[in-house]
Write a structure and sequence with these properties.
With about 220 residues, this protein is of the alpha+beta class. It folds into 2 domains: about 150 residues, Elongation Factor Tu (Ef-tu), domain 3 (Beta Barrel), CATH 2.40.30; about 50 residues, Membrane-bound Lytic Murein Transglycosylase D, Chain A (Roll). About 15% of the residues lie in helices and about 35% in strands. It has 4 helices and 13 strands. The protein has a 7-stranded antiparallel β-sheet, covered by helices on one side. Strands 4-5 form a two-stranded antiparallel sheet. The chain is elongated and about 85 Å long.
């Protein structure tokens, strides 16, 4: 079986429909890190001994790894100098694209990894040189952050977001503060919800009636 090399494809749009260029990583990374992060609001009220974690958001995924560039001639198939290899990589991943007024959208493709993203950091460490100072080897540490279009993000987002208007059917035993806590994570919005729904007595909710909870300002 032939060795599969990592490929990086560049696109001009977040729908990844118009490819503009690509490059091949001649020396595959030995490892890569695929990071996932969930953010919580853990601020405790003044005077409280502790607090519970409340979900805030999910950060975009990130992928990071090292790429080695070699210009010594010992690796078969690599004829470009280290400087030329890095220039090609930068033109695909890093350089400002005047057509879209930002760097390219990218897809990393290697084995099971297919990652839609943008390059966020690119550090080069030159490790071997010719007598004239020209680099013969370099290691680059790169990081990419997930970049999805609005439609894809909307599909992945939960419809329980407090930034949306919610329609709730009142059930036996429901209270307005408890409903606000479920939707907003904070029961203190019950008076605002009561005013929005023209409820004069929030303690007497009629089961089966419909309650609208507006987006938070």
């Amino acid at each position: 079986m032939a060795l599969e090399k990592m490929e990086i494809f560049a696109y001009t749009d977040d729908q990844y429909s118009t490819q503009t260029s690509s490059c091949t990583v001649d020396i595959n990374p030995s490892t890569y890190t695929h990071k996932h992060k969930v953010n919580y609001n853990n601020q405790a009220p003044q005077g409280a001994a502790n607090t519970t974690l409340k979900f805030k958001s999910i950060s975009p995924e990130t992928v990071s790894f090292d790429i080695h560039f070699d210009g010594t001639g010992v690796i078969e198939g690599i004829t470009d100098t280290v400087s030329e290899q890095i220039k090609t990589f930068k033109e695909v991943c890093f350089t400002y694209n005047g057509e879209i007024h930002e760097p390219n959208y990218l897809i990393l493709s290697w084995g099971e990894l297919v990652f839609k993203c943008k390059l966020t950091s690119f550090d080069v460490n030159y490790t071997l040189f010719k007598q004239d100072g020209s680099p013969l080897r370099a290691k680059t540490s790169v990081s990419y952050e997930q970049a999805l279009d609005v439609k894809t993000i909307s599909k992945e987002a939960s419809d329980e977001s407090p930034d949306l208007t919610h329609k709730v059917e009142i059930r036996q035993g429901d209270t307005l503060p408890n409903i606000c806590f479920k939707i907003y994570g904070d029961c203190r919005y019950y008076m605002e919800v009561a005013r929005f729904n023209k409820i004069t007595n929030f303690r007497q909710l009629e089961p089966g009636s419909i309650l609208f909870l507006p987006p938070l300002k």
